[in-house]
Specification:
Elements: H1 10-20, H2 42-52, H3 55-60, E1 65-66, E2 77-82, H4 99-103, H5 108-128, E3 136-141, H6 161-176, E4 186-192, E5 205-206, H7 210-226, E6 233-235, E7 239-240, E8 243-244, H8 250-253, E9 266-267, H9 271-274, H10 285-295, H11 308-320, H12 325-341, H13 363-376, E10 378-382, E11 396-399, H14 421-429, E12 434-436, E13 440-446, E14 452-454, E15 465-467, E16 476-480, E17 486-490, E18 496-499, E19 504-508, E20 520-524, E21 530-534, E22 549-552, E23 559-562, E24 569-576, H15 578-586, E25 591-597, H16 617-629, E26 633-638, H17 648-651, E27 654-658, H18 665-673, H19 708-711, E28 729-737, E29 740-747, E30 753-763, E31 774-783, E32 788-794, E33 802-804, E34 809-811, E35 815-822, E36 828-836, E37 850-851, E38 857-859, E39 861-865, E40 872-876, E41 880-891, E42 896-903, E43 906-912, E44 918-925, E45 935-940, E46 947-956, E47 960-967
């Protein structure tokens, strides 16, 4: 089914031939249409259905909202049910831990079970066909977590492509049911490709040199597609090497080659409109949509449910000759292949058609959610055996802003119930626990008028006003989320204050929504007063202009938005100190559990990257105060990403991390704190000590900038793969087997526990810069006290390959490879050397046409689109830039330099040995009117251009583009 090419159904052709011979064809079908016959091949059924559709009907399938076709008994179909960690946006459903929490289990078998449960629940909703229904699931997210500041870090799995590939394949197999011919659901991998920043996400370009693209970013997407555990990819918002991902030709030219099955590729929401919009890449939707289809897009997610813009654009593209009817049939065929395999046209809905709503939040799924939340938690620190706690010590205080609440994220389902940390601990101990949020309660008084900011007392709240009242209606609990952002919860009704585009009202249970209108900043002034700044739907330059502060705007004192110079100045009266309350709560207790962390609607989210990697200052101060009041303290960090933690991790004896882990969070944490479960989660990302350890979030070259555990040379706070246990493990020697390596692992402690055995490889000598370590295999193993098991880790020679830019192919170099096995990337317990018989990369042959992007090093350049349709060139961004082509063989002498260049005028110097080395030739370029209009320039080379050396092209002229060159 790969790369479907239109072919007529043999049945339809036969009927046509019979009719042509004068035979009688029944006016009504006595048997079902062939496309409804499950005994026929998928190809045959798709071809039959395509033959029965009009061109307009085929075009109608290309939008997210595919209409019903009543004459054939075909119901409507919608792509895009969100299912990152449970079915989202359709109501109460089992809410599993966030994706990064699921990944922290390092447990593919569990991931498949969770995926299967989510697939079942999607089927259950399908029976009811609610608004937003659909069996095409937009999950999992496999974008690599190379930068922990990414706002959507919670949605991904890992900074490592092998781990991401293994876990996404497992989750996808669960979603599909494991049979690509009979799909439970049709998962779509998000977001292709290199989508790891939210800052200007539709206009920034992710520069992927070939090695980074092949070894890193593509490597995360390939496994699930190759294993038929996903049925397509979603194109991302960003540009890749200067070209919008919506028109990335690799959607067709690379991704579809990973499988023999038809793929249904979709755009991200509203992305087609970005092409003529803020990306300004094509002048109209018609040209943009046509280019996207040519690139490999099948389904357009644009204009919400209004499909007319898309269908109109595609119809216009056909009329203008930008598309052929065969292009429409190709895309429609991909879509119908998935719909056929979902059993839509089978009797009773096919293999999975009997699944009903009884599976949604079933007892089995609740149990699975608890198991996933338990396995995904990571014990970061456990000094002197602080954990597990003793159940006999029942006088416990659970404090902190997340002690007695659960937060959900943008792609979460609705919690059917919520077991908070305090709930879980109380249930575990069989007695109530003392709890306190540890946040200040304040009153805001207008320094000029003496009137207080007050809120409504009923459940729905009321617009905030300045009045003379000074009771609880004038009191607010202040939650500090870091980066200066706070939320205000009214003491009068327990609801959060938010902007509703007209007023500020205390009516929200939690901060929520796309714009998260419940965010504020209390800006202290020189005179000790505060300005109350609205920080919800706000950018560096608010789209509405200047008024982002609060002040009375109505005659009755109702607060509204005003300019800074008109903002009210408030005194901040602390009615109740959060730190003092928490300290009082923990004093004298057997144990103090402090739960701190993030709000997933505020601290990094879609469209907003994190600007601060630390804990909120008030939360850090709370932990320090509690530690001083009760040294028997345990800190739980509940968030969605690595956190710098400052000095905190040094000061407290035990730190346990969890993601926002869904409805069973509290039970899972209690099981871990009290030893009914042994911590076994492992970090899937490097936890850095400081933001200074990281380059710009827009720098995607992990090789040159030493990103992720693979290349990072510093000392992390916690390394990739880290996670402690209540027991200990001993590793034996490492032995080669026919298909990899094996090692004996023994539980040397007194508790049953799971060890995640990790195998890394390191190539000692290479033509190219290699990772310090690279994960190649891992195995989770359960061991009873004293038990020994032989852990088998698969590793083949081909797994050691890297991308050779000199010949654009995968290569395994001959040499010595260190095989390292341990408990984390930094905790290596055993190892051996493997002498690999591979090849030696020959010297570069620059006499053949060389693509400029295949450099070995660079400075002052960006990767850009060679043309709008395909290809990558190198663009100059500095007054003087250079490209290195190492170990080139010029032989007895190269006499001529030839290059294809476009864009701004400039020169290309050919130098030997270094960017300032011997100059052997200069080609001048007068410039072209378009960056896509290439010309050939040449230069004669001096006699020094010979031998085996590093060749540098020194580029002068910002805006100049180099596509290819040769020296012969």
């Amino acid at each position: 089914m790969k790369g479907r090419k239109r072919r007529r159904s043999t049945l339809v052709v036969a009927l046509a031939l019979i009719a042509g011979l004068g035979a009688t064809v029944p006016s009504h079908a006595e048997t079902p249409y062939p496309f409804r016959d499950p005994s026929l091949s998928v190809d045959r059924r798709v071809d039959d259905l395509l033959d029965r559709l009009t061109l307009d009907e085929k075009i109608s399938l290309l939008h997210q909202y595919q209409p019903a076709i009543p004459r054939l008994g075909i119901e409507s179909f919608r792509t895009g049910t969100e299912a990152l960690h449970g079915v989202a946006w359709l109501g109460e459903t089992t809410v599993f831990p966030q994706a990064v929490g699921l990944a922290s289990t390092w447990d593919p078998a569990l991931m498949e079970q969770v995926g299967s449960a989510v697939g079942d629940e999607a089927r259950g909703f399908q029976r009811e066909r609610p608004a937003g229904w659909g069996l095409n699931l937009w999950a999992p997210v496999v974008n690599l977590l190379r930068d922990p500041r990414w706002g959507r870090n919670e949605e991904g799995y890992s900074e490592d492509p092998a781990l991401t590939g293994a876990l996404s394949t497992a989750y996808g197999k669960g979603l599909t049911g494991g049979d690509p011919d009979h799909l439970k659901t049709a998962p779509t991998l998000k977001h292709y490709l290199a989508n790891n920043n939210e800052w200007h996400r539709t206009t920034t370009s992710s520069d992927l040199r070939p090695r980074v693209a092949k070894e890193y970013d593509e490597a995360a997407f390939k496994p699930a597609i190759e294993a038929n555990a996903a049925t397509g990819v979603m194109s991302s918002y960003n540009l890749v090497n200067g070209r919008p991902a919506t028109v990335n030709p690799d959607l067709d030219g690379v991704v579809r080659k990973w499988t023999s099955y038809d793929l249904l590729n979709v755009t991200d929401a509203f992305a087609p409109g970005n092409l003529p919009g803020d990306q300004k890449y094509y002048p109209s939707v018609t040209e943009g949509d046509a280019a996207a289809m040519k690139a490999g897009i099948d389904s357009f997610t644009d204009n919400d449910a209004n499909s007319s813009v898309t269908t109109g654009a595609i119809t216009s593209a056909l009329q203008q000759g930008l598309l052929k009817e065969s292009d429409v049939e190709e895309a429609a065929g991909h879509i119908l292949s998935v719909r056929v395999r979902l059993g839509e046209f089978d009797p009773g809905g096919g293999k999975y058609g009997a699944i009903d709503t009884s599976v949604i939040n079933s007892p089995a799924h609740q149990k699975l959610a608890r198991k996933a939340a338990t396995e995904g938690a990571v014990l970061l620190k456990n000094q002197a055996g602080t954990l597990p706690l003793k159940k006999s010590a029942k006088d416990v205080a659970v404090v902190g802003p997340l002690a007695d609440t659960l937060y959900t994220d943008w792609y979460s389902g609705t919690l059917p119930y919520a077991v908070t940390p305090a709930d879980g601990i109380a249930a575990k101990l069989g007695t109530p626990v003392t709890t306190d949020e540890g946040v200040d309660r304040i009153a805001l008084k207008n320094a000029e008028t003496g009137r207080y900011v007050t809120a409504g007392t009923d459940a729905d709240g009321e617009p905030l006003k300045e009045t003379s009242a000074s009771d609880t209606s004038a009191q607010f609990d202040v939650f500090d989320w870091g980066a200066g952002i706070v939320t205000l919860r009214s003491a009068a009704n327990g609801k959060y204050v938010g902007y509703n585009w007209a007023n500020f009202v205390n009516d929200q249970v939690q901060p929520n929504g796309w714009y998260v209108q419940q965010q504020f900043k209390l800006e202290e002034q020189a005179d000790g007063t505060y300005l109350l700044r609205y920080a919800g739907y706000e950018t560096e330059e608010p789209w509405w202009g200047n008024p982002v502060y609060l002040g009375p705007t109505g005659a009755d004192g109702t607060l509204g938005l005003v300019a800074k110079d008109a903002a009210a100045h408030y005194t901040k009266d602390v009615v109740r100190s959060g730190v003092d309350e928490a300290v009082a709560a923990v004093k004298g207790r057997d144990h103090a559990v402090v739960v701190v962390g993030s709000n997933p609607s505020i601290n990094g989210r879609e469209a907003h990257d994190r600007t601060d990697m630390g804990l909120a200052p008030a939360q850090e101060a709370l932990v320090k105060a509690v530690k001083a009041a009760n040294p028997r303290v345990v800190v739980i960090v509940e968030n969605s990403y690595p956190t710098t933690l400052g000095a905190l991790q040094k000061e407290v004896p035990a730190v346990l991390w969890t993601s926002h882990a869904g409805q069973e969070t509290g039970n899972a944490l209690a099981d871990l704190l009290y030893g009914d479960a042994n911590p076994s989660g492992r970090l899937t990302q490097t936890w850095y000590r400081s933001e200074s350890d990281l380059p710009s979030i827009l720098d995607y070259d992990i090789i040159k900038s030493d990103r992720t555990y693979q290349y990072f040379k510093g000392s992390p706070l916690y390394p990739f793969g880290h996670g402690l246990s209540y027991t200990s493990f001993r590793y034996g020697g490492l032995h080669k087997t026919a298909d990899g390596y094996e090692v004996k692992v023994t539980n040397t402690g007194s508790r049953t526990g799971d060890e995640v055995v990790q195998l890394y490889a390191h190539q000692r000598v290479s033509r190219d810069k290699q990772p310090l370590k690279q994960l190649e295999a891992f195995q989770r193993v359960t061991l009873k006290p004293g038990e020994t098991k032989t852990v088998k880790l698969k590793l083949a020679k081909k797994d050691l390959a890297h991308w050779d830019v000199t010949r654009s192919k995968w290569v395994v170099e001959q040499g010595t490879y260190d095989i390292l096995v341990g408990s984390s990337s930094a905790d290596i317990r055993t190892g051996t050397a493997w002498q690999v018989s591979g090849e030696t990369i020959p010297a570069r042959d620059l006499s053949r046409t060389t693509r400029a992007e295949n450099f070995d090093d660079y400075d002052g350049t960006r990767l850009v689109d060679e043309s709008k349709e395909r290809g990558t060139a190198v663009g100059v961004t500095a007054d003087r830039a250079w490209l290195k082509y190492g170990d080139a063989r010029l032989g007895s002498g190269a006499s001529k330099f030839t290059a294809r260049v476009a864009g701004a005028s400039g020169t290309v110097e050919v130098r030997l040995g270094s960017p300032t080395g011997t100059l052997v030739g200069t080609a001048a370029f007068g410039g072209t009117s378009s960056p896509y209009a290439y010309e050939t320039v040449t230069a004669d080379l001096s006699r020094a251009a010979k031998g085996r050396t590093d060749v540098y092209l020194v580029l002068k002229g910002q805006g100049l583009r180099l596509a290819t060159f040769s020296l012969d």
